[in-house]
Amino acid sequence: MAAIVEIEYFNSYLIKKMVNSSDYPAFPGILYPGTIESDVDHQYYIEEARIRGGFNNVSTDYGARAYLDEQEPLQQHRFNSLIYSGVYNSRTGINQTNVFAVGTAITRSADPANGSIQLVYAEDTNLLVFQTNKVSKALIDKDTIYTTESGTQTQSGATVIGQIVPYRGEYGISDNPESFAVYGYRKYFADRDRNAIMRLSNDGLTEVSMYGMQDYFRDELAKITPESKIHYVTSTLSSATLGNSSVFNILTSSLTSGLSIGVKMQYSIDNGVNFIDVNGYVIKTEISGLNTIIYFSAIVPAIVNGAIIRFSNNYQSKIIGGWDIHNKNYVVSMQTSPYDVSSDDSSFETVTFDEKINGWVSFLTYKPTIIDSLKNKFYSFNEAELYTHYDNTENNRGLFYNVRKPSNVTFVFNPNSSVMKNFKTISYQGSNGWEVTSFVSGFEGFDSNPANPPVSGQAAYIQNKDSTNVVRSYEEGLYTNNVTGQPQRAGFDRKENRYVANLVSRSAARGGEIIFGNAVTGIKGYFATVTIETDETTQLGGAKELWAAASEFVISSY
């Protein structure tokens, strides 16, 4: 039988109102005054507030209570504002990092006309704020006051984030915070919207892409778009593991491109016509013999063998930036698609900037996911794998992400620029193992296409230029003469520690040429563009040096 007890608010807590007392049969509730036992909607559990229940004894505290009830509790996206929490002190045990008191001024807003805040970086007693169209610094624990003499002074203030002071120049980081890199007092980033690579240092903002590479970055940054795209990988199911429908064996040869962790799966049993989204994600992949074992985050409905499986992945273009502490270079990789979508050379451009010469010094052949340096080591990520660069212990030169690519140097022969020349030979000083993969003259201007009318797929006008055969390296050009039985070289030969070779034209005869055939050596032009590249056999992965290159030429008589 329930009892009716008169209680005072100051002496007890009303803990819980019971909707159905049968849920707690061992703990009958106490009826509120004026109710009957069967009125279960008014049963309460209470707890004594006073210690030992004594009158006027010490009372327990009510604790934190929320008093504010907003009429329209809508979430706001303040894209241009900064907010800070309470303090954290590990020595005293104070941790208020989750305390955001709305009664105090804990926010600081930048100009919304400059777009959203993409990145913040703490430097000494300032906070660098990178917006889409502006770079500023926010003072920390201090404010700036302006004097009557038009000067400024700083003073300690009660605010954590002080004034936001913009840097001169209408530059921002666009929506590519991944391009940010820092070394010492220099910061580098990309402003895609203005076709610029920027440096922020003590002298302010500088557009370093202007140093001899303005046209290049204008073209390459224009390919980086903020729109999201979808990549598909299709395959035919060969078999499913019994008892676990979330694991499948898929023939590796049937995958049209790479498959990475985190992509979504769809399937169809109608030869790829009706794809059904399974809402499962790839969480792990393994190679087992000829098959690829794929694990999903969700149980996939039963699928018959031979079904078409399609993996979809949303991606965006990126500008990956980082600091190479080994060579003291800023490395930036402009990628129209991530590595798991495409690893082709046409999908990325990776270049380096050197402060010592204020110029862009090299094109790189790798496509990183993340770039960073730590303790005098330069690292990069490729998907989920970490790689150390400049590792020369096992002839790893030119080897990036287990793919070896040759190193090359491209330059221009242009002596006596106003004189038409015949380039006859090519020579270089350096190590063995270099070959000339391209030796071409300048274009001679637009001529009408000989096809009249032009053949489908060909331009109405063409540009003629002369080119030579590939000049093989000292080792790859070695062959045995069938007549004499003596070894000869079809490419570079070594003379007095220099590698020399004749240039053999491979250009077809054109109308209007006065002499063509055995009487002609080399190629003709005002200048020649040459590419020298490491071969694929000579001390693979070893050190190669190239000190100088030259070409013998004569003034053309025609």
Task: Name the features.
mainly beta, 5 domains, elongated
Characterize this entry briefly.
The protein is an all-beta fold and 558 residues long. Helices cover 1% and strands 43% of the residues.
Give a description of the structure.
1% of the residues lie in helices and 43% in strands. The protein is an all-beta fold and 558 residues long. It folds into five domains: 45 residues, no CATH class; 89 residues, no CATH class; 139 residues; 87 residues, Elongation Factor Tu (Ef-tu), domain 3 (Beta Barrel), CATH 2.40.30; 146 residues, no CATH class. It has a six-stranded antiparallel barrel. Strands 8-9-10-11 form a four-stranded antiparallel β-sheet, with no helix packed on it. It has a four-stranded antiparallel β-sheet with strand order 12-13-14-15.
Blueprint (SSEs and pairs):
Blueprint: E1 12-18, E2 30-31, E3 43-48, E4 81-83, E5 88-89, E6 94-95, E7 107-109, E8 117-123, E9 126-131, E10 135-146, E11 152-166, E12 181-183, E13 186-191, E14 196-201, E15 204-207, H1 214-221, E16 229-240, E17 247-251, E18 264-268, E19 276-288, E20 291-296, E21 308-315, E22 318-324, E23 329-335, E24 348-354, E25 359-364, E26 370-374, E27 377-382, E28 385-388, E29 399-400, E30 403-404, E31 408-413, E32 421-423, E33 425-430, E34 434-441, E35 446-448, E36 461-463, E37 478-480, E38 487-489, E39 493-495, E40 498-502, E41 523-525, E42 528-534, E43 546-550, E44 553-555
Antiparallel strand pairs: 1-3, 2-3, 4-7, 5-6, 8-9, 9-10, 10-11, 12-13, 13-14, 14-15, 16-17, 16-21, 17-20, 18-19, 18-21, 19-20, 22-23, 23-24, 24-25, 26-27, 27-28, 29-30, 31-42, 32-41, 32-44, 33-40, 33-43, 34-42, 35-36, 37-38, 39-40
